[in-house]
Design a protein that fits this description.
Layout (H helix, E strand, L loop, with lengths): L2 E5 L2 E3 L5 E8 L8 E6 L6 E6 L6 E3 L7 E6 L4 E6 L8 E7 L2 E2 L3 E5 L2
Parallel strand pairs: 2-11
Antiparallel strand pairs: 1-3, 3-8, 4-5, 4-9, 5-6, 7-8, 9-10, 9-11
Amino acid sequence: QKQLVESGGGLVQPGGSLRLSCAASGFTVSTHTVRWYRQTPGKEREWVAVIFSSDGETNYADSVKGRFTISRENAKNTAYLQMNGLKVEDTAVYYCTAAGVWGQGTQVTVSS
């Protein structure tokens, strides 16, 4: 059974950092494209970042470019989203998705 489990969310002050993890089971992260999305109440889910399975190339939404980094660690079958320079507007539930599966989400709150 394919499954994704996110972790690493929490409360952080503006300018701080968090690293989100997306642990996969039932399939291999390295052979699937992984995407991170985020969602705030009343808004549509917003795409944040992608790492492609074919060559490991990454791409980011303009709102996070230069601050967020997506990566994967094949040995741990896990993808990550390193978030630096966090802003209040980054507050959201963050989801990872791959192989047609979505995780349950992890809350990120940026507040002073």
